[in-house]
C-alpha cells in the first residue's frame, strides 16, 4: 500500500506579518508559515490507513525551501516514511491550476504509483478547495470528497468511504471507488482503531518516527521544474490563468483592552479577581 498526503504551508495570520510584493503577490519566503490546518485531517486519514493496512506513507508539498519544516511537522503527525518538496523560482506565485499541474507531475515521478492520495478540504489562505480535485483531474483518477471515514479492501483494490452530502452533517452516503483513488478528508473525519493490534502498532510507529523526524533531511527529496520535466510557461505565475485584481493585506488587529496586573501573592488583589469572576460562575 503506497499512500501520499499533500500538504501546504500557509501564512501564519496570527503573527500579522504577511508580506506582499509590489504586484500584490504573497512573498512566502518573508512570511511566517504554518501547516495548513485542514491538511491535518488528511494526515489523520492517511495515518489510519498506515496503521490498519500497512505500507509506505509519503508527504508532498510545493513551495519555497522553508516548507521543509512543514514537512517535518507532517512527518511527526502521520509518521511518514519519506518527504517530497517541489521547489524552485519557476513554481512561484502559482494559482491552483498551475499548482495542480506541478503536484500531479510530482506524483507521476514517484518510483511507485500511489494507491491513495489524500488532500485537505481547503487551504487557509485561498480557501478555494480547488487544488486537490484539480490534481486528481490531471491524473484522471476517481475522487471521493468530504470523507468522514473509510475502509480499504486490498484484495479487491477498492476504497469504501462515508461522505457528507452537500456539507450537511445530517445526510451521509456510502460510496465505493477503485484504487488508485483521490481522497479529500472532511474536517469531521475521525480515525478509528477498533483492534488492540492497531493501537499497539500506533505506539510502535510513534516511537520509530521520532528519530526519523529528527533527521528528516535524510528522508527528503527536492525536485525542481527540470526534474519534473515541466515547461516554465505552464507553471508558476506564467502558467496561472487566474488574474488577481488586487489584494488587501490583513493588518494585525490592535489590542484595545485594558489589563490590570495583579500579584498572585496579594490577598487584596486576588479578592478583586474573585469578585470579578463570581457573577460568571453563577451563570450571569
Automatic annotation (TrEMBL):
TM spans (from-to): none
SMART domains associated with the record: ETF
Pfam families: ETF (PF01012)
Electron transfer flavoprotein alpha/beta-subunit N-terminal domain span: 23-209
GO molecular function: electron transfer activity
Domain of life per record: Archaea
The protein, known as: Electron transfer flavoprotein subunit beta/FixA family protein
Species the sequence originates in: Haloarcula salina
